[in-house]
Amino acid sequence: MAEPLRIALAGLGTVGAGLVRLFETNGALIESRAGRPVRIVAVSARDRSKDRGVDLSPYVWEDDMTALAEREDVDVVVELVGGADGPALTTARNALRAGKALVTANKAMIAHHGMELAELAESQGIALKFEAAVAGGIPVIKGLREGAAANRIERIYGILNGTCNYILSTMEQTGRDFGEVLAEAQALGYAEADPTFDVEGIDAAHKLAILAAIAFGARIDFPAVDIGGIGRVRAADIAQAEALGYRIRLLGIADCDEGEGLFQRVQPCLVPHGHPLAAVDGPTNAVVAEGNFSGRLLFQGAGAGDGPTASAVAADIIDIARGDIGAPFSVPAAALAVRAPADAGHRTSRTYLRFTVTDRPGVLAEITAAMRDAQVSIESLIQHGRPEEGGEVLVAMVAHEGPEARIAEALRLLEGSPSLTEPPLIMRLL
Amino acid sequence: MAEPLRIALAGLGTVGAGLVRLFETNGALIESRAGRPVRIVAVSARDRSKDRGVDLSPYVWEDDMTALAEREDVDVVVELVGGADGPALTTARNALRAGKALVTANKAMIAHHGMELAELAESQGIALKFEAAVAGGIPVIKGLREGAAANRIERIYGILNGTCNYILSTMEQTGRDFGEVLAEAQALGYAEADPTFDVEGIDAAHKLAILAAIAFGARIDFPAVDIGGIGRVRAADIAQAEALGYRIRLLGIADCDEGEGLFQRVQPCLVPHGHPLAAVDGPTNAVVAEGNFSGRLLFQGAGAGDGPTASAVAADIIDIARGDIGAPFSVPAAALAVRAPADAGHRTSRTYLRFTVTDRPGVLAEITAAMRDAQVSIESLIQHGRPEEGGEVLVAMVAHEGPEARIAEALRLLEGSPSLTEPPLIMRLL
C-alpha cells in the first residue's frame, strides 16, 4: 500500500464537521477507492471549545490556521472557512506556495481569485480542486472537466442556489408571498439570517462564473455576470406563469461565441412544465450542459448541506490521492481565453413583463403604446382585475420572441411614468 | 507538448463513424483539454467499401481487426464492434495482452467478461474504460468512480434503455398498444429489427450489472439479475397507473447489503409523478445513485445515438491521455467482493397486479381469496367493466406494502386457474 495522503482541515463549520464525520464513517471505503490511506492529521478553527458533534482528539489542533500550510506532515490543505478574502484566501495562498494541494468549497474565493490560485497551483505542479464550490454534492465540475471533456459546450445553465429554489417552489406550492416564505426558510435553516447573497443572485453568480470558465475555456469574469435576484417575484407572478404553463426558477445561464463574447446571467426565468428544471423543487440544484456531441446532460442533486458538500470535498481528496493533478479549469490557466462580455441587446427571447400600476384609465394604453413604439410585439396580455393592497393593479404580458434591446427600449420609454408604482419585473422564458 | 496518444479504432458502425467525426470536429479542443495531441492512426471494420459519411483516408486501414493490437504505433484500442464474444472479445484481449489500453462501448462484453478484462488490464498496469457502455453519453460511471467516490452507495436505479423508455412514454402519450408503438419505433430507428435485447430487459440488465459492481464494490454477476421486459405492458396498465398518479418505466434497480447480498432487478415499475424519473420521456436515460453522504444524485441525458456515445468514448480517451489508469471498477478487481444474490422474498414493496380473466361470475372471488390466503392486503382494486378483445376482462389492483414472498404465494395459488387467460403482470411501485 502506498504512502498515506495527509489532510489538514481549515474551518470546522457545518461542512468541516461533516467532512470529519464522513472520514469517520466511510474511512475504509475511501482508502480502498483511493488506493492508499487518507487521513486527517491536523485541524484548525476559530473556537477550539465549541462542540461540533465530532471527536477532534485524534487530530493536531492548530490555533493559527495559517500554520497548517507549514506543517511537514501535511500533503493537502482543505479550506472550508468561506469568504472571498481574509483568512480563507491567506490559507489558500500559503498552502499552494508551500507546495500543498488545495481543496476548497469556497465559491466566492474561486470566483474572485480562481485565476491567481490556478496559476499558483500549476506553477507548483500541484492540485487545486473545488468541486464542492458549485452545486454542493453534485459532481458537475468533474462532469464538465471529464465526462463532457470531448465536447464544445454550447450552453450551460441551471438552478445553482438551493435557498432561492426552496423559496420559489414553496411560493408555488402554497401561494404565499416572498417575504413570508423567506422568513420560514430562515427559521428552517434553508436561508441565512442575512439572505442577501442568496436571494439577490450573487451566490448563483459565483457558481455560474466558475462553470462558465470551465465549460468555455475562458478566464473567470465574475464582475461581468448580469445578476438579478428573486426578491421582486410575487405570488401573482407565479400564478400567472403557472397559467401560461411555466414555473419560475432562478437560473444561471452562460454561453460563449468567439464573435459575440461570453454571456453570463443570473435571473428568475419562466421554465416550461415539460423541462426537467421545472420539476426541481426545494433546495435541490440541477445543471444542464449542452455539448455539441453529448447533447443535453443533466446533473441533479443536493445543492448544499453538510453531507453532500463534504461528499464533494472528499471526492476531490480521493482524486488527489489517485494522482490526479490536472488543470483546475480543465485547460492550463495560461491557455484560458480572455472573452469580452457579450452584448445582450441583440439576443432574442420571449419575455414576461409585469407592471404594477395605479388603478386609473389610460395606463394600459400608455404601456401598450410604449411597446408599439419600441417594436415589441405582445403575444398575450393579462390585466389582473382586482387591485392588490394599496390600490395597485398588476398587468402581466408575454412579448413575442424578439431582441432584448427592444424590451429595454420600451422600459426606457416608460421610465419615470407616474402610472408605474415600481419598476417593471422582466423575466425571460427558457 | 507531450507525445501524442495514438488510437486504433475497431468497428466503424454508427458510433465508430461518430467518433471519427467527433475527432474531426473537436480535435483541437480535445488536444487542449487532454494536454497532448490525440490522433486516430488506424481503423478496421468488416467492409472497407461502405460509405460511412466520414473521410477515412488519413488512417491506416487494417482488414484484420486483430492486427490493430499488434501495431507498434498504437497506444489505445477502441472496440466498437459489439457482441459479448467473437471479434470484440478477441480484439479486447489482444489489445490488453499487447499492453494497449482498451476503451469500449460494449456493455454485453463487460457484463460477461468484465472481471477477466479488468484483471488483465490491471496486471498490465494499463487502462480499461467503458463509460459508453452504460447510459450512452451520460458520464455515470465517472460519476460513481469519482464524483460519488467518498460515499457508500445505498441504492442505484434508473432508466437504462432508451428504446423501452421511448415505447413506454409514447404508449403513455398516445394511448396506443405495445405492438403498434414498437413497429413505429423500429421504423424510426429507435428499435432494432430484432428488439429482443431491448424490450426483454437484457440490455438494461447488462448495464445494471456493470453499475452495481462499481457502486457496491462487488464482482459483476450478470446471471443473477432478475430480468423482466416491457412486452406485456398494455395501454390499459398505463392508463390505470396514470389514474393512480404513476407512470410506468422500465427500471434497473440494485442494492447491496453485506448480510442480504446483492439485489439486481430489471422490471417495469410504477414511478410516482413527482419523482424525476417519471418526467423522463423518449429515448432519454437517467440514473439515480443514493450515497450515504451525497444523498440522491441524478444523471440524465441521451442513452444512445452516435454523438452521445462517441462523446463518452472520447471522454475515456481523454482520461487516458491525462494519465488516468485507475482501476476499471473503482477498486482493484481482486478487491471486489463476491456477493451472493439477495433473496427477494422478504423485500417489501407496494405492488401492482393485473389479471386478465374470462368474463364470468366468481373470478373476482377466486382472485381475492388467493390474496387473502397468501396474506396479501389489497389497497385498491379496479375491475375494468368493458371486456377487451376476445371477451377477456382486466382486473388491476394495488397491494399494500408487504413481503414479495406473499405476492409470489398468491400467484402460486392462482397458477393453472382456468379463470386466468394469461399469467398475471406484476409491477412494483417505486
TrEMBL record, chains A, B:
Gene3D superfamilies: 3.30.70.260, Dihydrodipicolinate Reductase, domain 2, NAD(P)-binding Rossmann-like Domain. Residues 352-428 form the ACT domain. Its EC number is 1.1.1.3. One of its GO terms (biological process) is methionine biosynthetic process. InterPro entries: ACT-like_dom_sf (IPR045865), ACT_dom (IPR002912), Asp/hSer_DH_NAD-bd (IPR005106), HDH (IPR016204), HDH_cat (IPR001342), HDH_CS (IPR019811), NAD(P)-bd_dom_sf (IPR036291). Transmembrane segments: none annotated. Keywords: Amino-acid biosynthesis, Methionine biosynthesis, NADP, Oxidoreductase, Threonine biosynthesis. NADPH binds at K107. Pathway: Amino-acid biosynthesis; L-threonine biosynthesis; L-threonine from L-aspartate: step 3/5; Amino-acid biosynthesis; L-methionine biosynthesis via de novo pathway; L-homoserine from L-aspartate: step 3/3. The keyword Amino-acid biosynthesis applies. One of its GO terms (molecular function) is NADP binding. L-homoserine binds at E192. NADP(+) binds at A10, G11, L12, G13, T14, V15, G16, A17. Pfam families: ACT, Homoserine_dh, NAD_binding_3. It comes from the Bacteria. The active site is at K207. Belongs to the homoserine dehydrogenase family. PANTHER family: HOMOSERINE DEHYDROGENASE (PTHR43331). NCBIfam families: PRK06349.1. This is Homoserine dehydrogenase.
